[in-house]
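To the wet lab folks,

You asked to see what we're planning to order before we commit. Fair enough. Below is the target structure as tokens, and below that is the sequence we designed to fit it. If anything looks off to you, flag it before the synthesis order goes out.
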């Protein structure tokens, strides 16, 4: 039997992962040893037994085999933080495909000396009445726009603080937030300090910016509704019985989910345990943070992209030492080394940013459930439009479903009109705005109310349709749309099928068979042709390239600096705009035609979110959905704001097609500098995979078939059983390891978020 050797690491920290020692695996351990396991090894001259962790196992001895020592045995599992982190890394390695080192680097924070960044804050010194009188003064004067904006914001903060906390301390706002988000100059802030309205102060560490008197944690003023209370009690009871579960909390925006999270977190803290709150970066607004800060005071901390690596490390150290109980952040917050996690909350659970785009391509949902398993914690997933995965599992009883149906913030669901764009063309309207939308836009402009125009262009790249009848060119084998390639051919990215681009529409014979190209800039121009005096703001990949510009555009719109905000999917998140009473969705079906099995789900989510942006304030809202496929179920159910019906139809399609969550899918991506070599390797790997008697689709060139002169190929392996996919992946890795091919790279993506 061939000898086995294991790379073992003794000092587990992000920086020392490359310092491994090799030991021989004794025969009795050959079948049982796995990466991530904790072992006893003889170390140093005295052969003292110490603890180490297995990173990789192989058959090649890197040193003199005669002088390579044996592993003494498997060590007792401690329950300390490090063991849990290692166990998590091993789980990630196994389930998502990466080396143990890559997985550990994902899980462990990089050690950095904390650069003492100064954090500056503004404390509000005046009460609401004094602020209001100062505001009135400024409004009467000229050139005080910045001052008016700042005072308005201070007033809002005051109100927010009083409503949400009832604490007697002063409202405190991060300085940076005022300069970047409200776009207010230092001179304006200084002038208000001189006027005695505020005080500017700095602290050395990134701490809670809200001061509560005596450090006391403020009690919420409001009582939970009975629906909210039932959820809280049920989850805490499970925790107390030692039977925590994964829960799906389905409730529209404003239905009180965040309030439930906070009550649960409080319960968890009372039990001496900690909580992790995942919020996608884009939804991590200051308003949300303030609610957590004012409830949990100094015991809560935040991870986001404005944190330096040093500060990130500092946060982890504080968590280890027990200085904080709650961490809020995007998916990487999962790896906060808390000693005893009691609850993980994952808000906006359906967001695709929860899946890592680099190896290991882990999904925060499954990873959160694993973290919870290691700690004996509960997981609460929250969303207004749950992912198919989450709802499917809730239906199967793997997750427990809770529903909140009432909107507590007031406002009503908007009236939605669906406009058939084919009909418009027949009536002779060639504009990108339907008659209905034009009429409603004119109405809002005359009333001084705001509108949002949403261009749904997700995944539109290359898809081809008939302008006369809306027919989309599709793959006859896969039920996904074909993409246009430079060579005048249409191609399927799932199976490789291709055909020449038709000269006329196969359905109606029209010559207008085209790819869709309209961008936000074009829409802005057309809008100005129709309404010359309209004030617009534009938000897309181009206008938000610089840091902070995203927030700037949103706050400018919130302050009424434009009548119409035009943007891509970015605008459906973030701020509430109470003065928006009209939402127009241009080309609702663009995302439907993406060559992707998730197209329907994504379209439904986007449309639901977009439509829900109208009528958040006191004025009722309306929405117009322009589409070539008014009868498509994703459009119909989004217009009716009916999640349940959408789910029923979508899951049928997934079951029939064998797509996640009904089945599992592994994308194998091949990257090669040499096109022919890449293609051959993809072919050879696909043949290998077929030997496992799993279903294999492809290979085919990837949607973007070349980036930076690297050719990309992809094939998909499908199976009902996730473990079968892991086995396939392991075998392909072995096959690759035996060959040591130069200049090619292979990556694995389990249940990918989009086609490749
Ligand atoms: P979601 O997270 O579902 O969007 P939130 O928890 O933010 O909902 O609640 C929406 C609004 O309703 C917030 O302003 C919140 O303060 C308020 N709210 C939540 N629960 C209650 C309650 N039980 N009574 C009164 N107001 C509530
Ligand atoms: Zn046609
Ligand atoms: Zn196909």
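Sequence we intend to order:
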């Amino acid at each position: 039997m061939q000898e086995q050797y294991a790379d073992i690491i003794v000092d587990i920290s992000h920086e020392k992962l490359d310092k491994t020692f090799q030991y021989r695996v004794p025969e009795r351990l050959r079948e049982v040893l796995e990466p991530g396991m904790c072992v006893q090894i003889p170390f140093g001259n005295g052969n003292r037994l110490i603890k180490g962790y297995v990173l990789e196992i192989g058959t090649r001895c890197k040193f003199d085999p005669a002088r390579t020592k044996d592993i003494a045995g498997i060590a007792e599992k401690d329950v300390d933080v490090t063991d849990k982190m290692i166990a998590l890394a091993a789980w990630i390695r196994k389930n998502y495909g990466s080396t143990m080192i890559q997985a550990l680097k994902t899980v462990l924070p990089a050690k950095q000396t904390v650069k003492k960044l100064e954090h500056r804050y503004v404390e509000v010194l005046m009460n609401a009445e004094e602020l209001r009188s100062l505001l009135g003064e400024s409004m009467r004067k000229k050139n005080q726009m910045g001052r008016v904006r700042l005072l308005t914001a201070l007033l809002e903060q005051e109100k927010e603080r009083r409503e949400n906390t009832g604490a007697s301390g002063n409202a405190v706002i991060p300085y940076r937030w005022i300069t970047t988000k409200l776009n207010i100059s230092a001179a304006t802030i200084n002038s208000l300090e001189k006027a005695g309205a505020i005080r500017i102060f700095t602290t050395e560490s990134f701490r809670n910016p809200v001061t509560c008197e005596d450090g006391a944690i403020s009690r919420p003023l409001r009582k939970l509704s009975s629906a909210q209370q039932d959820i809280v009690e049920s989850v805490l009871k499970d925790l107390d019985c030692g039977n925590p579960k994964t829960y799906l909390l389905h409730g529209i925006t404003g239905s009180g989910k965040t309030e439930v999270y906070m009550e649960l977190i409080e319960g968890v803290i009372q039990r001496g345990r900690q909580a992790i709150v995942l919020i996608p970066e884009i939804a991590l607004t200051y308003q949300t943070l303030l609610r957590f800060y004012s409830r949990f005071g100094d015991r809560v901390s935040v991870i986001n992209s404005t944190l330096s690596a040093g500060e990130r490390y500092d946060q982890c150290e504080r968590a280890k030492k027990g200085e904080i109980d709650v961490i809020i952040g995007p998916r990487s917050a999962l790896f906060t080394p808390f000693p005893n996690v009691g609850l993980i909350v994952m808000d906006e659970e359906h967001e695709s940013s929860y899946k890592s785009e680099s190896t290991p391509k882990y999904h925060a949902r499954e990873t959160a459930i694993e973290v919870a398993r290691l700690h004996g914690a509960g997981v609460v997933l929250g969303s207004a439009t749950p992912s198919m995965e989450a709802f499917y599992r809730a239906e199967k009883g793997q997750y427990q479903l809770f529903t909140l149906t009432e909107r507590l913030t007031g406002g009503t669901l908007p009236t939605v009109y669906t406009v058939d764009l084919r009909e418009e063309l027949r009536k002779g309207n060639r504009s990108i705005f339907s008659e209905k939308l034009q009429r409603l836009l004119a109405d809002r402009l005359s009333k001084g109310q705001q509108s949002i125009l949403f261009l749904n262009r997700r995944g539109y790249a290359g898809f081809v349709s008939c302008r006369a009848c809306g027919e989309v060119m599709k793959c006859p084998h896969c039920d996904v749309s074909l993409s246009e390639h430079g060579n005048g051919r249409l191609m399927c990215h799932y199976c490789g099928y291709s055909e020449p681009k038709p000269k006329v529409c196969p359905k109606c014979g029209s010559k207008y068979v085209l790819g869709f190209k309209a961008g936000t800039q074009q829409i802005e121009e057309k809008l100005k042709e129709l309404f010359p005096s309209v004030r617009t703001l534009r938000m897309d990949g181009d206008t938000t390239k610089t840091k902070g510009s995203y927030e700037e555009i949103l706050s400018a719109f919130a302050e009424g600096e434009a009548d119409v905000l035009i943007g891509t999917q970015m605008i459906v998140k973030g701020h509430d705009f109470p003065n928006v009473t009209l939402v127009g969705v241009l080309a609702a079906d663009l995302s439907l035609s993406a060559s992707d099995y998730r197209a329907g789900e994504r379209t439904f989510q986007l449309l639901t979110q977009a439509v829900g942006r109208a009528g958040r304030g006191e004025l009722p809202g309306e929405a117009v959905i322009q589409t070539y496929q008014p009868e498509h179920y994703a459009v119909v159910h989004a217009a009716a704001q009916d999640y349940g019906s959408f789910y029923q139809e979508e899951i049928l399609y997934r079951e029939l097609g064998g797509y996640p969550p009904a089945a599992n899918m592994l994308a194998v991506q091949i990257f090669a500098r040499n096109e022919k070599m890449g293609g051959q390797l993809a072919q050879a790997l696909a043949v290998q995979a077929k030997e496992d008697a799993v279903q294999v689709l492809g290979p085919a060139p990837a949607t973007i078939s070349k980036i930076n002169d690297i050719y990309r190929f992809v094939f998909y392996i499908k199976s009902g059983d996730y473990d079968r996919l892991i086995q396939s992946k392991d075998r392909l890795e072995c096959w690759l390891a035996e060959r040591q091919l130069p200049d090619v790279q292979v990556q694995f993506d389990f249940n990918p978020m989009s086609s490749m």
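Structural context that might help your review: The chain has 21 helices and 30 strands. Confidence is low (pLDDT under 50) at residues 206-218.

Thanks,
Computational group
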